[in-house]
Amino acid sequence: MKKFEEKTIKTTQIFDGKVVRLQVDDVQLPNGNTSKRELIKHPGAVAIIPITKDNKIVLVEQYRKPLEKSIIEIPAGKLEPGEDPEKTAVRELEEETGYTTKSISKVTSFYTSPGFADELMHIYLTDDLEKLENPPALDEDEFVEILEVTLEEAKQLVREQRIHDAKTNYAILYLEMQELR
């Protein structure tokens, strides 16, 4: 057994939903003892940092039920089975903002909550936005408002905790670091 590895003895599926699957694993710990791990399995997600020609960040405000409030975020969405993350990023950009792009670059990937979930978030950047004449419709259960803000305004939204999620905070920090170069 590798250092720190927890060997799965048994998996019990609790829930299989549209977005996540919940399971409880019985595991053998490195010291030989056993324990239980509650795990959320997620197909992965993407987010895109869209920058307009006048150097504004395109953000969306939407209600997040787990938080019981609206927050402001970079456009993002769940990967569909077998879908290329880059294609997902462009799709989400189009659906949520009405912009498209022909040029995106990968910034990073990170696990959102590795203590209990396997969701891998891919972050992309584009500064080659083009407004769509006929943008695709949002999902029927999705309601967003589009904001275009400067980096300074985005940092103020962070201070106000209106931007209050990891992916968007990462995006703001990334843009700030690029500005310092």
UniProtKB/TrEMBL annotation:
GO cellular component, alphabetical, reads:
cytosol
Which Gene3D superfamilies does UniProt cross-reference here? Nucleoside Triphosphate Pyrophosphohydrolase (3.90.79.10)
Which example biological process does GO assign this protein? nucleoside phosphate metabolic process
Instruction: Name the UniProt key words of this record, in alphabetical order.
Output: Hydrolase
| A GO molecular-function annotation | pyrophosphatase activity
Domain (Nudix hydrolase): give its ranges.
Answer: 40-171
Keyword Isomerase annotated: no
The cofactor required is: Mg(2+)
| Similarity field | Belongs to the Nudix hydrolase family.
For this entry, the protein name equals ADP-ribose pyrophosphatase
- State the organism of origin: Ornithinibacillus halotolerans
What's the name of its gene? nudF
